[in-house]
Amino acid sequence: MEDMKPLIRSSVDDGGSMETRFADLCKSLSLDESALRAAIGLFRETKHLLLANMSVLGSGTLEENERLWSAFILYSVKRLREEKDKQDNSGDGFSLCQILRATKLSVVDFFKEVPQCCLKAGHILNRMYGTNWEKRLEVKELLANFTQLSDLSKFYKRAYLEFFIQTSASVGKQASGSSRPGYISDYHYFGWLLFLALRVHAFSCFKDMATCANGLISILAILFIHVPVSFRNFDIRTSQFLAKKSNKGVELLQSLCAKYNTSEEELRGTMEKANKLIVDILQKKHCPASECKTESLENINTEGLTYFEDLMDWKSLPYYIKMLEKDYDDAVRNKLELDERMFIDEGDSLLATGSLSGGAMSGSKRKHDLITSPVKMITSPMSPPCSPTSPAYSSKFALTPVSTAMTTAKWLRNVISPLPSNPSSELGRFLSSCDKDVTNDVTRRASIILGAIFPNSALGERCGTSLIDSIWAEQRKMEALKLYYRVLEAICRAESQTSNGNNLTPLLANERFHRCMLACSADLVLATHKTVSMMFPAVLERTGITAFDLSKVIEGFVRHEESLPRELRRHLNNLEERLLESMAWEKGSSMYDSLIVARSSLAAEINRLGLLAEPMPSLDAIAMHHNVPAAGLPPLPAIKHDISSDKNGGAPSPKRFCTDYRSVLVERNSFTSPSKDRLNSLKSKLALHSVFASPTRPNPAGGGETCAEAGMNVFISKILKLAAIRVRSLSERLQLSQQVLERVYSLMQQIINKQIALFFNRHIDQIILCSFYGVAKISQLSLTFKEIISSYRRQPQCKPQVFRSVFVAWPLAHRSGRMGQEHVDIITFYNEVFIPSVKPLLVEVDSSLSTLNNNRTEDSKIGDGQCPCSPRVSPFPSLPDMSPKKVSAGHNVYVSPLRSSKMDILLSPSSKSYYACIGESTHAYQSPSKDLTEINNRLNGSSGRKVSGRLNFDSLVSDSLVAGSLCPQNGPFTPFSSVTSLNLAMKYEQPDP
């Protein structure tokens, strides 16, 4: 069937009406003449892109898409002209908040489309504003700040309502010009304004979640002291919220620290800053609370607390609110893109619900899925188990982004901070036992790398150097350093037991290994505090490594740091998924250095696309680029970079055109497909120092393969594991049969074996989506691509860019006449690239699986060494479904949580069932609800105690269990004998935006 072109508006000028509407929008924002010219000029330059991409922008009408594009143009002009405006001592006088209100868009709508707009207009912005335009836009940082404030405002509201009554109207006369809604009490609003004053005047430019949460807790303490007793929600004498008491009364700060997992020292320090702001901004005199007699202080130990007389008086409070609002306006005028006062009102139009992930869930549940942070719940079977000994995991309240940050910060405070800032005596023995003592090398490297990640000024670009910034950076640097030494020591201990010796020179002298360890330590610290200004992959850029490098140490961190909190284990698991699904395949990934050795036939294609990594920068270059002081540090070691000759332990220069690997390897058409037993021991045989060794060196574990081949086999096994999980989840949503599921997975295996270039510079979900449609075509299923995309939207990892923008590098002689590199929609990619590449594989999937099933028994007798190079295809593995937990020693009763795909069905409006029983009924023809009652009665009766409370499933599913279930089964793959003539092209369906 012939491809149908999308129905889009012509790129011919529409008579100028679009430009007229944009000019009117600019005038409504009162742009000065210079900014107006720049905005209209950029709009004219990009208007043809808007007209050509109307069908893939936004999710609404053409008029809404035009407003989205206009908002993007205005925001780009504002941010990219800021340096010029600073030189001219002028300002554009408008913010993103004003832009969105003028264009009637929500923040979620805007951020959902910005990546697509950047992709389409990138070449023009690059030409007009320079190559670093995307970094200067700071879209990710602004989105992270929006998400953080949204989470903090919800935390503050929950805490406030837990302690105080939320009146239906303000207790006094509302401040003139106040931006808050009338149903928010003055006390509630005053607290939020005081918190914003803390953020502006007293907090570091880094503004991490833990610091801000401490600020809100200190605000709650101030409200406790000053809000009239009649507005409390509890009796202070009997309250369970304030559990710490002494003979002097309730210990307010200790109670809040116990409730919210913070430290009294930090809380007192933050309260001092807040009290100083009340003195400076509101001109209020303070006095020790112990000298004051007021009803609000009764039954509270007032020692060390500060009191402001009449601060919450109903007559003066509106005036103080007005003063705080004026201070906020003066402090942030033209400096902030979003008016942070809006977060106090969840009904604000700018906070309209939506989904930044592209999924089907409402914004209230998954509004901010783009942010990399420890997650609230297990989203896939790959989630690793929590450590039952983790000191940070004893949650007394619901997991939220704020509570997660507080519990992980407590782990850093209690477990990591007390550690020494220098290598321990045991680690020192390992470092000094190398062929050359590497202690000075290790300490100097750590100082330079962590100094680059945590500069003394907040990124050195947006904020000037301040004492607060320097203190914050030094604290985070020391936490990362101590964590690095702790995990490094544990790894050395384990490696020495494996190698039966203390000489670990191949590992401890490897530059890339140490940088990966430092990057992982720093990322965990940043993830703990949820730092807006330092987001992944900043640690990669500042250490000179790539995503593929970092993926090699993640598993070691989880295995060797037993105290790591559950939330950080999940963070590392999510991070590894990000690395596997796309980042390891991006241009400049060091994965291509290994791949080009393991599969030399791919050298030409890798070089044609320019995918090889740049040489890893030296420590000298990093120290100079990030202004890391070198005073007091030992001299720089003579580093043997990975880009040096193979004799020095590195790979050939990545930027050299790689055609000289045929002398190193026997040409192979695919990766070696190890047998089940061999793959099970693959990771254990691949020593850690071999993972970071030169790709061309022989694997010390033997087998006649290079380190590159062994490492790539491990990498590909992880890719297939991730693909299997996502294929199964999407198949369940589409309600496809097991046969179709196996065909899709089989096709993915064959693409990895024979057409791995399809993954280059792409997201693996793009290959999965195309595989589903291709298998549906050959299986003669009535499944449209729109239905596949609709189901994919409900996947937790979904992002619209996956199916909107697929990288394509057109060959010179392409039939469509297209040339160069561009990003196209997934339908174009499927028709023009995917099908021509995989058609010989796709049409034989059914017969190959049949052959596999017929010959499985016979093939199980064949030795592993008989056919080491032939690709093998296994049926879809039996992945564990959230392993059941036995809840009784005397009865065979097991309970397991639901998968998210099943939960969607059960929790649908038409469903009345929230549970299911599997197995024999306790009585014939009995309903599941009665079965559950009977089971509960038996359990309670047999044990003599009542079974109650929340079941803990965190330790049920291990990553190793899932990995083991994905081992290829013994069984040959029958080569394709012919290509059936079949039209697999896709009709151009209008894709959902």
TrEMBL record:
Residues 80-226 form the Retinoblastoma-associated protein N-terminal domain. The keyword RNA-binding does not apply. This is Retinoblastoma-related protein. Coiled coil: none annotated. Keywords: Cell cycle, Nucleus, Repressor, Transcription, Transcription regulation. GO terms for cellular component: chromatin; nucleus; transcription regulator complex. Regulator of biological processes that recruits a histone deacetylase to control gene transcription. May play a role in the entry into mitosis, negatively regulating the cell proliferation. Formation of stable complexes with geminiviridae replication-associated proteins may create a cellular environment which favors viral DNA replication. It comes from Acorus calamus.
